[in-house]
Write a structure and sequence with these properties.
With 470 residues, the protein is α+β, with helices and mostly antiparallel strands. It is 12% helix and 26% strand. The protein contains six helices and 22 strands. It is globular and about 75 Å long.
Amino acid sequence: MRFNFVLSLLATSPFLAQSENQVTNLRTNDVSRDLSKIKTKAIIGFDETIEQCTGALCGVFGDPHVMTCDGMSYDCQAVGLFNLMDNHMFKIQGHFAGVRESERIGKLRHVGGSLLNDAMIEFKSDENIPILQLGFGDVTEAIDTPPSQVGCTMKQYWDPRKKHRNMCTDMDDYGDDNPLIDADCTTTGALHGDNSVYACRKRCEETPGCAKFNYWADEKCELYKDSATLVPQPGSWNTNLAGTLDSDCGKEHPLPELKTEVERLKHGMIDGKCPLLMHLDGELQDISRFNELTKGYLYGDENSDFSVYMHNSDVRVQYKIPGKEDYAAINFGKGGSGPGEKWNCHWFLQTCLPAVDEEKFKEDSRNGLSTGLMGTPDDNKDNDWMDTDGNTILIEYPDQKNDKYQYEYDYCYDNHCVKQEDSIMAYPGDWTYDDVKCQHLPFIVIDINDPETCDVSADVANAACEDMRK
């Protein structure tokens, strides 16, 4: 098997002045901006919108859920490098990283969910536009316990719990030896609770008599006297972190850093939590000024044919259709609690395929030239599953719910894994294709001295690399 050795000298484009214009909120017709809320919507047709693009919407979000351009939804809890979309306009690939990084996948039951860590976009309608890659890099080194869980007790909780989660409780109900400090309904629930274990610990520190606390995953914080005792947590309950003021639970701990020096120097920050890496045509860009700034153009400006704009926890990518006053758009929303956490930094990805090319997208679908997890944009959900060659796969779900998830996993894994020669990913840090590929695919070490794996001579390759170092 031979691999092309791509030789190009890439001129890093300077960053244009930061725009103070607010990014217009994502607009959709009968669709919530929150991708997690559109999973059950029937989105059919080319009349949804993202910014200046009116067309068909499709997306990937969560652990991960997939919404095809025709409104079909399913889960793809697989790990590897996947083809999200490939048609006449876009080639989009996504690297799904396991929620439990130490797990190497075999079957769905070993995965427990995965996250979109990196997305690569080639805009095939204009060869002058560089391949864009947005990701969070590799910060997995030496992480045994998520930073927010250090020092906390898991799978147990301080007893008793508040009797009513969202109602005020009469403290007299607990008797004279009650270890629970407060039962004020205004300090419970997602709207009035504490949104992190750090905030829960701080409230305990500021409350007279508090020595212990429960912090529940649904943002409930419960405070206790020292007399509270630990009891086992039922498996069906939300995750709890039980801490004491004598422990490290709820204390701030250093977040892991990107492994390589160049990434530490050039990364930006998104939402103040996640290190952001941007590559153009495989070259890492210096966006370090976005460690402090929260909005501005990472590339281009409002008049550019191609622009990348960051605003708080979102990144909007916009492409002008050559020869037309129409646009394609992709919206990235940052998810996750930060590097090293169980639910690490990841993307919610939503793509708008412009209505001006609707007939061409449908033609791609008819001719088997539209592939990927996000389906065939032709107003027909029945052909949204296809094999690698674009042939429609008849969906026949098994009866059992757990078998359904395995069935969807097998579809993703068997049909849309990206082969090494088809990858457009620039691997962060010391990663190679071997670190991101689907488990069953081979990895071939490319040797510039071996004509079987490299199309150019070692002298030509070394000379090109030397020129790029200057």
